[in-house]
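Tokens for chain A. Residues wanted.
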């Protein structure tokens, strides 16, 4: 059970971070955020939905629920997201000054 929680948590964190803070390949997630009303970086975020989308903690709850539901269907898919999250965490840790 604890392994499942760890895997789903890592996968949810990776997905939430990707949606809330990263541009993604070909700026896909940047475009999604703009379509949802999130202004360009540096501008003030106004509105409930734009604030929700730019908050890793807020969108993390939604991605955790999604990853748990996906776990019920395909554990392999969630493990891939979790491994991706682990890779990104290690890369960020290695870049830290």
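Reply:
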């Amino acid at each position: 059970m604890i392994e499942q929680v760890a895997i789903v948590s890592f996968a949810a964190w990776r997905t939430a971070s990707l949606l809330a803070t990263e541009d993604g390949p070909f700026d896909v997630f940047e475009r999604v955020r703009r379509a949802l009303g999130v202004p360009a970086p540096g501008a003030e975020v106004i509105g409930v939905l734009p604030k929700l989308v730019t908050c890793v903690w807020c969108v993390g709850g939604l991605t955790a629920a999604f990853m748990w539901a996906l776990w019920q269907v395909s554990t392999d898919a969630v493990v891939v997201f979790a491994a991706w999250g682990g890779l990104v965490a290690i890369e960020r840790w290695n870049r830290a000054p």
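The mean pLDDT is 89. Residues 52 and 95 are 28 Å apart (CA to CA).
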